[in-house]
Every structure is written in C-alpha cells, then in structure tokens.
Amino acid sequence: MPKLKNISPLGTIDVPLLRRVLDAGETVDVTADQARVLLLQPANYEPADKTAKAIAADLTASQDPAPATSPDGHDNGAQAPASGAGTEVSK
User: Fold this and answer.
1) Model pTM greater than 0.85?
2) Is 84 left (phi over 0), alpha (psi -120 to 50) or beta?
3) What is the C-alpha separation between 53 and 23, in angstroms, rounded?
4) 61: confidence class by pLDDT, cuts 50, 70, 90
5) Residue 6, SS3?
6) CA-CA distance, 56 to 37, in Å (whole number)?
7) Residue 26: how many other CB atoms lie within 10 Å
8) What is the share, in percent, of the chain residues with pLDDT greater than 70?
9) How many CA atoms lie within 13 A of 1 on its CB side?
C-alpha cells in the first residue's frame, strides 16, 4: 500500500476520502486509488514510499503539457483585453 504524508500548511486536516483526521506530518497507508486522488494536491500530500512516488510520477507524466487555448479551440481574440476595452465598433 502506498504511504502519503500530510504536509498541508493547515496542519491537522479532515480527509473525507479517508474518513479520518490526519495530524500535521502524519504518514498514512492508502489504497492506490486514494493515492491518485490525494497526490493531485501536492501542497497537502507528498509520497512517503516508493509505491507512492511511482504513482506521483505517473500522474505528473500523464498531465497534458499542451498550452491553453480558447474554449472554442481557436485563438481568435486571445489577445483582447479582458475588460473588453478597445473592442467597441464606431458607427
């Protein structure tokens, strides 16, 4: 079973997925599925053994490195100011 360590800046945290409270710095055994979910929060949990480190590496490798695009998949107007300023049309 993978082991994770609570490194949350909040210290002691309630972890509903585990149905328990983890003290600051506490290491806990989790299932592989639980590790995959919790390791998506690198500010709160770190892998504490080889199995968890392998899962973390797989998660990192599977993340999409593609650049962000506009919702419609086109970059039209991607440089327009968020406020919409300068987009008015004079009549």
Assistant:
1) no
2) left
3) 21
4) confident
5) strand
6) 10
7) 15
8) 69
9) 8
